[in-house]
Amino acid sequence: MNQTVHIPVMLEETMLGLEVRAGGIWVDGTLGGGSHTRALLERSAPDGIVYSFDVDPNALARAKETLKEFGDRFQAVEANFRNLDDRLAERGVMSVDGILLDLGVSSDEIVDSSKGLSFMTEGPLDMRLGPKANEDGLTAADIVNTWKPNEIEQLIREFGEEKFARHIVDVIVTARKSSRITRTTELASLIRQAVPKGYERGRIHPATRTFQALRIAVNDEFESLKEAIDGSHRILTPGGKLAVIAFHSLEDRIVKVAFKDKERWEPITKRPQEPTEAEVQKNSRSRSAKLRVARKVQ
Ligand SMILES: C[S@@+](CC[C@H](N)C(=O)[O-])C[C@H]1O[C@@H](n2cnc3c(N)ncnc32)[C@H](O)[C@@H]1O
To answer: Is 1's pLDDT higher than 60?
Structure first.
């Protein structure tokens, strides 16, 4: 099984925020490369149990190998975190001490060309993180080839915060008249044609925002997050904490709004915590991370 290439983000901050201690039951809703799960296992030793969710079977298979030393203290669950309370209840777990959601995709998934997440690598225009990532089997190719132009435009504008959404959709609609758009690099080159030269003064690739919007829609990321926050509240013990690391402003907004419900949550981080400059230097992917932690009130 291959090694992870994912570098964990705000590892120390999340462990401190969750106040991980010996014993108890802890949940990592986003196993990924397994570094946060490993830290939960180490800090809850000798007998804490960690349930780690992922929709990506590769992440689960890898972690079963790399976290073998923890034996039954590590429980891998192939499921969407939107149903985390139900999946835990099925395993006889009715309350937990802390939950972490480190949102989005891992670097392992970005480099896996079969998932089609990267505009830099040739691959199918799929973008599902795994078989349980969505219920309807929707792929990025389905969106690009079958949705109405105004629906695609709205998606790219809202979820991608892309100001050239209209231009991009015009190029997509013209191209799909002659043949179905099926490859990542094909879409990336259409987007490049659609946006002005010197897009964003070269700071980001022109396809970045469109690819992000498609991925969010395919994996129903925002609705899953809302359901996961509700489910976390149901399964946390009173006083237990939920920590969420968001990488997208709309995602962070969902967390911020949810944590404003004073009858349910007491925010521990009044403002979102951000990575230190030293962390951003070491791992540029961490630069947009925002960590919020809240305690379940009742
Ligand atoms: C940013 S990575 C987590 C990295 C991890 N914390 C680490 O230290 O390596 C996010 C992971 O969550 C998974 N994921 C995304 N959405 C999910 C969902 N709705 N349910 C379960 N897993 C999800 C992805 O497949 C990915 O492996």
So the answer is: no
